[in-house]
Amino acid sequence: MSVVTSRFGEAMTTPYETIIGLEVHVQLQTRTKLFCGCPTTFGLPPNSATCPVCLGLPGALPVLNRHAFQLALRAAAALNCQIPQRTKWDRKNYFYPDLPKGYQISQYDQPLGGEGYLDIPRRIGIIRAHLEEDAGKLTHEGNLTLVDLNRAGMPLLEIVGKPELTSPEEAKIYLEEMAGLMRDIGVSDCRMEEGSLRCDANVNIRVGDEVTPIVEIKNLNSFRFLERAVRYEASRQYERFQRDSSFRFGKVPKQTWGWDEVAGVTRPQREKEEAADYRYFPDPDLVPIRISPEQVAAARAEVGELPSQARERLASQYGLSSYDVGVLMGMGRTAIAYFDRASAACGDSKTACNWITNQVAAVLKETNTTLDAFALSAERLGGLIAAQKRIGLSRQQALDVFAKMIAEPLDADAAISALGVTVVSDDSAIVEAVRRAMAANPKAVSDYRKGKKAAANSLKGAVMKELRGAGRADVVDRVLQTELERHE
Amino acid sequence: MTAVLCLQRLARREISASALLDYYLTAISSRNRELNAFLHVDETGARRQAQAIDHRRAKGERLGPLAGLPVAIKDNICTANIPTTCASRILKDYIPPYDAHVVNRLREADAVIVGKTNLDEFAMGSSTENSAFGPTRNPIDPTRIPGGSSGGSACAVAADFVPVSLGSDTGGSVRQPAALCGVVGLKPSYGRVSRYGLVAFGSSLDVVGTLTTDVADAALVLGVIAGPDPRDSTCLRESGEDYFATVEQPLTDLRVGVPREFFAAGLDSEVEQAVRTSLSIYERLGAKLVEISLPTSPHALAVYYLVATAEASGNLARYDGVHYGSRITGTNLLELYEKSRGAGFGAEVKRRIMLGTHALSSGYRDAYYLKALKVRRLIKADYDAAFQRCDVIAGPTSPTTAFALGERANDPLAMYLADIYTIGANLAGLPALSLPCGKSQAGLPIGFQLTAPVLQEERLLRAARMLERQLRAKP
Asked: Which B residues 85-104 touch A at CB under 8 Å?
């Protein structure tokens, strides 16, 4: 029995456990292909980004893209993989029209990333990570098949996860965390719609002591497809398990199925006529690579703080709630750095977090910009938060100053004086305003006095209106409270 | 005429590049039909180049070291806009869009590219009989084979069609035809010359080499084509040297290693005698002969036919009828592959693809391919040990002189034995050279092979040149 969360959010119990292992392909963010100088730009006219090397012309030879290797090493470090002292290239031999050389250059028995893990936050094991070249793309038109080799030779990192994911939701979270991590460390842009993040899922189920055969599901082009396909496949396997006693692990070979999003079902893909024998052997056109301890250290330094470490630090160093940590981390690692700096500038991390996850996030979304390109620096935002507290800016005033500071490179004080924002903090003036507001709203006053404490909010609004929005918020609160209690 | 002499006469303007080219084109047109050394003569392109060089010389422009020298290129080395067929039906109409690195270097040196020479299909063979476009004949005796696989290149130099040609050597394909045609064949160290644009056969063994009339010419041409190339990851970083500048300097205190395994059963007695005579010339020149042993050399042939064919099975997978080359369609993809490859490749190529595929197959990989790699390391270690005791290793290039056309065509194993002395240098990545050291009673050339430690081309060429001068000085 296994408890999973349904798509409606409530806990559901299934009579089986789902076992999921993902193979993730991440396209590395390099300017040029893995073994030649062709551009990796997406969406170029078919076969325009090709040369003798990626076309597999006779006599052409591959030369490793050092930047791709560096990014792959960084990814391996981020996934806590064991990194060997030596890695090499192998040829994986098979015939297919999208494979111009008749073999793919890959890594067989000495991948650059060995065992590792990803914390999502539950720890999920990684079996290996290796670098390989992508194949081309086939398009079928009637009885013609068109070959586009722009994608041939693109640098891919294949990350094979252990079958330790236990639900469709968790599989989706794993893939999202993986994509977020790869984006954060600058390894890949992970755009599923452009194919720079791809995923195959190996799925089977355990019922009591029995396990069904593994089915590999291909063609999972979005996070949502992954979740849906795995859920469908697990239930399909359970249904088959119940009526077919030969549908057990070891009795049926591993099969390859594809996800049909329109029909919402998985379907078997045409089986290869015989078992594939890729006849791997070391590629004699490339030399093995020695990886020095300095290179590994540099890769780890490039990775910096891992999400799991950041999660822990944000909670312990700033006392942020797990909700706040989650929202902040959802904005990516630049948001964490921005938050660190804003907090330091204002000394109020909770307020800084609120500003970043609410106002800043909203502006970024509206203007479709990233935090890197955001006009308001973390230090200036920190200054605004400090000024708000010091001067007692109302919420609306603070928002006005915020907008001013985005539009113009002013610090908080300059923006406040430029806007002519004034704050009434003179007690007698505020007492006057409070009394007038109470007199004008007897119902709210009596409601409050009968115990409806929320009525104070409408009175506060009335006070602010009396003060034309310039009342110092903390003084207004204090005076209003005193006045309401006084006549009780 | 040697390349050096050609270049001297060109430099002194005793002859123009165009006139020199005409001389060779006339020779080609009179005898190529019979010998089939050239698969393609680029008369127009060559004339244009020669004229351009004459023009530049007339204007007093600075010219490259091979300015106006006609050169032939083995047809498995890519030449932009000139067919490159590998003597295979599957590439019958293939025209590369780019020049191989060595062709770039030749053009930069202002050499004139005359055309493309015949070979065993994809360089697989030792007689040039495995060409889809007919065999090449030995110019010394046209009833005999010229050796292979660079038979066209060796024949072209021996028949005086060109002073210099390029070949490729995977297991002896430059040295063995050089020996059988009576010319000098140089195989540089693996990685000394870029393979970029050399159509791959056995990638860890393939090297571009030269065929010339003498050792000085080999030194001259090697100086032009050797050196680093960022497009070939296996090309060594060491820059080439000016081999021509030192080639005439004899070596003192030279120790010549004589492997006892190279004088065992199977060696023709006339060949043995000529080789021993050359060894005694070395002694006369003050060198010391040292008997050495290469104990694993009897396994070299077996190792070679596993490593080379395994690599070839991958390298030749790209000829599938899909992207370029000849295509025969079928009712489905598998049929397209089967028919295109079935009709496109000759019997020897198919045999080697199958051998290599088998050697890499699951269940056989450990016993064949991986074991061959281990023995290859032992063979290399044998050479390393031998070179502790000597400076160069000497012996015959080929166990026999040129055999008759068709004589071994149906006996692949007998054919494979033709490479028995040359394969070791490929497996160990060493530079080696064959030079003519006499003739049999039938008048057939005999080759003498020298091998040096890796990157010691200078030593190899100087050692060869000192012998060559003595051999040529004889009446």
From this structure: 86, 91, 94, 96-98, 100
- Structurally, how many domains does chain B consist of? 1
**The residue count for chain A:** 488
* Residues B1, B161 contacting (CB under 8 angstroms): no
Domain A427-486 in CATH 3.40.50.300? The answer is no
| Residue from B142, B147, B74, B61 nearest B106 by CA | B74
Mean pLDDT of chain A: 91
pLDDT digits (tens, 9 = 90+) for A61-76: 999 999 999 999 999 9
Q: Which two tokens stand for residue A307?
A: 């999400």
What is B157-201 written as a DSSP string? Answer: HHTTS-SEEEEEESSSTTHHHHHHHTSEEEEPPTTTS--TTBPPS
pTM of the model: 0.88
Query: With contacts defined as CB-CB under 8 Å, which chain B residues touch A281?
Result: 310-311, 314, 360, 365, 369
| Position B45 in a domain | yes
The span from the CA of A458 to the CA of A444, in Å, is 7
Q: What is residue A287's three-state secondary structure?
A: coil
Residue B338 has a CB neighbour count (10 Å cut-off) of 14
Q: Which of B259, B255, B222 is nearest to B241 (CA)?
A: B222
Determine which helix (DSSP H) or strand (DSSP E) holds A199, and give its type and residue range. Answer: strand A197-207
Helix (H) or strand (E) holding A144: strand A144-148
Location of structure tokens 């050169």: B71
- CATH number of the structural domain spanning residue B139: 3.90.1300.10
The answer to whether the Cβ–Cβ distance between A285 and B203 falls below 8 Å is yes
Per-residue pLDDT tens over the stretch A75-111: 999 999 999 999 999 999 999 999 999 999 999 999 9
Of B202, B311, B318, the CB nearest to A56: B318
Catalytic positions of B are 74, 149, 173
Encoded tokens for B104: 């770039």
A147 touches chain B (CB under 8 A): yes
Domain-embedded: residue B432: no
Distance CA A219, CA A203 (A): 14
- Nearest Cα neighbor of B138 from B186, B180, B175 is B180
Among B153, B173, B114, B186, which residue's Cα sits nearest to residue B36?
Answer: B153
Mutate to test the interface with A, among B90, B122, B204, B315 (most CBs of A within 10 A): B315
Say how far apart CA B105 and CA B83 lie, in whole Å: 19
Residue B322 lies in a domain: no
- Within chain A, all domains assigned CATH 1.10.10.410 are found at 427-486
Q: What is the ipTM of this complex?
A: 0.95
Residue B354 lies in a domain: no
